[in-house]
Structure prediction request, 231 residues.
Amino acid sequence: MSRILMVVSAADSLTMKDGTRHPTGYWAEELAVSHRLLREAGHSIDIATPGGAKPTVDAISLSPDTVGRDKAEELGAYLREIEADLASPLVLADVGGDYDAIVLPGGHGPMADLYQDPDLGRILLDADDDGLIIAPFCHGPAGLLSAVDSEGNCGFAGRRLTVFTNEEELGGGTGENTPWLVESALREKGAEVETGPAWTSHVVVDGNLISGQNPQSSAAVAHKVLAALGG
Prediction:
């Protein structure tokens, strides 16, 4: 059995380009689907957030109008099942290196906190140095921007990855009012971003880095992590 650290945003809003605050958090499908598949395979999962704050689920991600009634009920039921873990996450700053994989689900929350969290940056740089599995998906790859080395460079420059695309953000995300675009930011920092068709599952594996493009990639990312863990 492996130990997995799931790093989740503690943000409950994102400041938009026009200065308004957009309610957000983590995306239910991304956390619930990946957590369930990894747990059902027998691995232990610790959830950690900045400051140990209880993460907020993006209400839109549980709306029947967004995901369908059956899926909304299924996701809500699983989140209630793991409510104790969500209510008392680890403090990200206190997390050590006793893990085999780091998983970063999205939602727009990471654009508000994880992208510049120094504790996450430390954890990711150490994990990458040790060759541990790092698996961000959808907006989770925003967290990779926190991994800045001693010379001020992004620790994932030159790495192949995917992320929620500019096309998806502008066409079905928060649109033109989005404060910044994660795909563009990663490209600017030197990452080699590889995108698939919008709103379809797409996963890129570059050594120990396993990334997914969108919510539809949640299960595929988890399966790739399981394969990399050897089961």
Summary: The chain has a mean pLDDT of 97.
